[in-house]
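note to self: dont lose this again. the chain is below, predicted strucutre after it. 208 aa total, dont forget to put it in the shared folder this time
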Amino acid sequence: MSVAGRLRRKRFALFESLLRAVPTPLRILDVGGTQSFWEVMAFTAGERVEVTILNTTRPAVSLPHFTGVAGDARALQFADQSFDVVFSNSVIEHVGSYEDQRRMAGEVRRVGTRYFLQTPNRYFPIEPHFLFPYYQFLPVVARVWLLQHFSLGWRGRTPDAQKARASVDSVHLLSKRELVGLFPEASLFEERVMGLTKSFVVYAGWPR
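---
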């Protein structure tokens, strides 16, 4: 299993440990997720747990007690406190500018009684989407040029300049200070690799 996979499982184990203290029935909103993520994590919703998965296009779902809906993380279509838990994994870095991220953070806090959100650390040496050392700190023109000429990480080589620029602009990594600014009341967990923080988890509202 990859380092990212091991961290993902460890992170989900933390989430499940928190979840066990929450009484059912339980409504979970996954902002930006997929059914396959929950399947890989071997999560079984059970009769008293409902999971709603929201993405920019309606995600396909087939598991019992799972529902897929389309929506915008920055303007969720749900009433205040309509979910017991809001979960989000590696999404907030994709919603746009810091102001867009602030809007998503506000929506997560508005619709959920509690939340659990993860995002990569901007200052980890290897950029997690393009898997290139310090890629996030290069000038935009350099990042676009590299993507036009090389396959980087999960992104295939993108010769078209506009498409390459859109791919580069689709990721806005957060620093620890910026993330804490978005979720000031949250507990913070740092996922480390070789002593360096690879990503952050913020969570709040859980029973102690």
